[in-house]
Write a structure and sequence with these properties.
There is one protein chain. This protein has about 550 residues and is α/β, with parallel strands linked by helices. The chain has 17 helices and 27 strands. The strands form 6 sheets. The protein has a 7-stranded mixed beta sheet, sandwiched between helices. It has a 7-stranded antiparallel beta sheet with strand order 20-21-24-25-26-19-27. A 5-stranded mixed beta sheet has the order 11-10-12-13-14. Helix 7 packs across helix 13. The termini are far apart. The structure holds alpha-D-glucose-1-phosphate-6-vanadate and cobalt (II) ion (CO). Alpha-D-glucose-1-phosphate-6-vanadate binds next to loops.
């Protein structure tokens, strides 16, 4: 089998966003759309000849077809070996783990994460580098530049391979090994988490529900929670990955995962509830009667991680994306460790992790992770929680309340205005930008603006500068609002408004979130002229 080079014409829209290239399925199905982008990725990887590539995805519609295309292209481009998850499946954190463990040159992950799937749904392609983490901006910029100029791709013409049988085959001169998608990941979890303590907790009657949302985490959660840790069968629900996620948004938040949320608020709530997203990198944590915000979860894990074997020697530092609440910073200060603030998206944590500046990191969007891989990791976060519950013997809700009593509470919410007109969204951001210098000192209802700026990040490791990463307005009353536009949407623009207010008065730690945030919401809406500019009186999703 000799490689064939096929001429092509470029597409102008193959610009990776917050997390890879995400588009509607029909866009990906255009002639050579996938081939062009994957060839652009390969053209941007130096010294790939003979190297190992990792390949897998979240199992959504088009996953299998695209895996086959990428295998043929990889063979045409001289890779030595591809490790592909059985059935074309690999969760995002498992792909990161496999890349690191097998010293691959990188990996391609097929996922649009929490976005809906199916023939009219979303699809995505993401490249992760040799450290297991999302390609940094310098690389995604190079891939985009290459995609805009591409004139040919090279592949080996061959029939589809059988992806459902473990073991090795070949494609031209390249080896293809179908691997168990769970094994390497499960082994890593066993090193980090006290499996014995968690097993004992399950054996003594601890009950949990894990909702895999018909997405990729099902096989991982079933193997680890029910298989290795002895949780009762049925602990993991919606455990079979489906191409369209059963028609749902596989987004683990109280809105899209309301069954679990409702169960946890009711009289039959088990001791612990958790869920993960389409590609397994996000997590939702719900204690009996109490939803734990991702920002609080990061703070609590930072405070208690030393209880797990993988973190027994303490943490080096913690990082959070800028819109994530400052709860983790308070814990870092008490531990005397570094706290970093990065732009939204996991790619910005990579350098801090690689340089050993941080051990844990997280985002308000239900992403938490550590230096064990270079992606956020939904099931890992759940296992670390279980380890902490087993080690302390506390109820999850009691742990959270004790945390607030000690550090205060960062009331938090995110309002998303989805699929608004792009020009209107850009106009809103531009108008805000222009207002910034005059804002300090301004009164908005009962709140007074203390600072207002647009977040820019200078990477402390490589010095690279990333600008326009969200507009933030802080108030003297310990409140903050952040505005930014999503970089993962596939239709129009999504305006995200992040709202928070800190309280440490012991009498004000258990109030309704909406009540505490109401003045901040009102200030945000008037400041950004949301309704006049977008026509939306209310957000589409509140999480
Ligand atoms: C969103 C989240 C961000 C996350 C990204 C990818 O990005 O806000 O925190 O890193 O999705 O997560 P944006 O640009 O739409 O706000 V995933 O689980 O979709 O890979
Ligand atoms: Co995801």
């Amino acid at each position: 089998m000799t490689p064939t080079t096929i001429p092509t014409t470029p597409y102008s829209d193959q610009k990776p966003g917050t997390s890879g290239l995400r588009k509607k399925v029909p866009v990906f199905r255009q002639r050579h759309y996938v081939e062009n982008f994957v060839q652009a990725i390969f053209d941007s990887i130096a010294d790939k000849a003979g190297k190992t590539l990792v390949l897998g995805g979240d199992g959504r519609f088009l996953n299998r077809e695209v895996v086959q295309i990428i295998l043929r292209l990889a063979a045409g481009n001289g890779f030595g070996r591809v490790l592909v998850g059985r059935g074309g499946l690999l969760s995002t954190p498992a792909a990161s783990c496999v890349i690191r463990k097998h010293k691959a040159i990188g990996g391609i992950i097929l996922s649009a994460s929490h976005n809906p799937g199916g023939p009219e749904g979303d699809f995505g392609i993401k490249f992760n580098a040799a450290n297991g983490g999302p390609a940094p901006e310098s690389l995604t910029d190079a891939i985009f530049a290459r995609a805009k100029a591409i004139s040919a791709f090279t592949l080996v013409e061959a029939r589809d391979l059988d992806l459902d049988r473990l073991g090795e085959t070949s494609l031209g001169a390249m080896a293809v090994e179908v691997i168990d998608p769970v094994a390497d990941y499960a082994e890593l979890m066993r090193e980090l988490i006290d499996f014995e303590a968690v097993s004992k907790m399950f054996a003594s009657g601890f009950r949990m529900r894990f909702d895999a949302m018909s997405a990729v985490t099902g096989p991982y959660a079933t193997a680890i929670l029910e298989g290795m840790l002895g949780a009762p069968q049925g602990t993991v629900v919606n455990a079979t990955p489906k191409e369209d996620f059963g028609g749902h948004h596989p987004d683990p938040n109280p809105v899209h995962c309301h069954d679990l949320y409702d169960l946890m608020q009711g009289p039959d709530a088990p001791d612990f509830g958790a869920a993960s997203d389409g590609d397994g990198d996000r997590n939702m944590i719900v204690a009996p009667g109490l939803f734990v915000t991702p920002s609080d979860s990061l703070a609590l894990l930072t405070a208690h991680a030393h209880r797990a074997p993988g973190y027994a020697s303490g943490l080096k530092g913690v990082a959070r994306s800028m819109p994530t609440s400052r709860a983790a910073d308070r814990v870092a200060a008490s531990l005397g460790i570094g706290a970093y603030e990065t732009p939204t998206g996991w790619k910005f944590f990579g350098n801090l992790l690689d340089a050993g500046l941080i051990t844990l990191c997280g985002e308000e969007s239900a992403g938490t992770g550590s230096n064990h891989v270079r992606e956020k990791d939904g099931l890992w976060a759940v296992l670390l929680w279980l380890n902490i519950l087993a080690a302390t013997g506390e109820r999850a809700d009691a742990l959270v309340r004790a945390h607030w009593a000690r550090f205060g509470r960062d009331y938090y919410a995110r309002h998303d205005y989805e699929e608004v007109d792009s020009d209107a969204a850009n106009g809103l951001m531009q108008a805000l930008r222009e207002k910034l210098p005059g804002l300090p000192g301004t009164r908005l209802g009962d709140l007074t603006v203390s600072t207002a700026d647009e977040f820019a990040y200078k990477d402390p490791v490589d010095g690279s500068l990333t600008e326009r990463q969200g507009i933030r307005v802080s108030f003297a009353e310990d409140a903050r609002v952040v505005f930014r536009l999503s970089g993962t949407g596939t239709a129009g623009a999504t305006l995200r408004v992040y709202l928070e207010r800190y309280e440490n008065d012991p009498a004000r730690l258990d109030l309704p979130v909406a009540e505490v945030l109401a003045p901040v919401v009102a200030a945000a809406r008037s400041l950004a002229e949301i309704e006049p500019r977008t026509g939306r009186a209310e957000p589409s999703v509140v999480t």
